[in-house]
Design goal:
The chain is mostly helical and 181 residues long. The chain contains 8 helices and no strands. 6% of the residues are buried.
Length: 181
């Protein structure tokens, strides 16, 4: 009964000081009532006893391990600093290369769009119509020159046949082009 009273007092004291109950500290179980009284009344004896308990030693050991782990990580991170800086520089360099390549790609895409627009079926069809009309106009001009006696028969025949052949070739392509598309 006296031991349970002292156990309760010690439990309250430990709980209020360290947030533990005496059952968490096996060393308390082996103490006599006089030893418990001495610990309760003497703060330095209590501190010495408490610091030598297995629970506190274990937690201190864990804290030391964590601190060593943190120190090791800090050293490892510090040793990686130059590598990280080199990688940052490489990223910046690659970013400028990508920017230059993107600008070049944008220029080429704009050129492609221009070419595609100039080479669209409607543009090509219109150019072929114009070339066909031009070939016909030239052949008509040659025929007019012959009628006005500006050309002899041999020159007229040679020029007119070549010009009409070109006109009919273009006209045929224009007709085929229209049916294909």
């Amino acid at each position: 009964s006296t031991q349970s009273t002292w156990g309760h007092l010690l439990s309250v004291y430990f709980f209020s000081k360290m947030q533990f109950q005496y059952q968490d500290i096996p060393e308390v179980q082996s103490l006599s009532v006089d030893e418990l009284t001495q610990l309760v009344n003497n703060d330095s004896a209590f501190e010495l006893f408490f610091q030598n308990t297995s629970l506190v030693k274990h937690r201190r050991s864990l804290n030391e391990d964590i601190q060593k782990g943190n120190e090791n990580m800090a050293v490892a991170n510090s040793s990686m600093k130059s590598e990280i800086e080199a990688l940052k520089a490489e990223i910046q360099e690659l970013t400028s290369v990508v920017s230059a390549q993107k600008a070049e790609l944008d220029t080429k895409l704009a050129l492609k769009a221009d070419i595609m627009q100039r080479r669209s079926t409607e543009v090509l069809k219109q150019k072929l119509r114009e070339a066909t009309a031009e070939a016909e106009a030239i052949s008509e001009s040659t025929a007019d020159a012959f009628h006005q006696e500006s050309l002899d028969l041999k020159s007229f025949t040679k020029q007119y046949l070549e010009q009409r052949r070109l006109y009919h070739l273009r006209k045929h392509k224009l007709d085929n082009f229209s049916t294909i598309l």
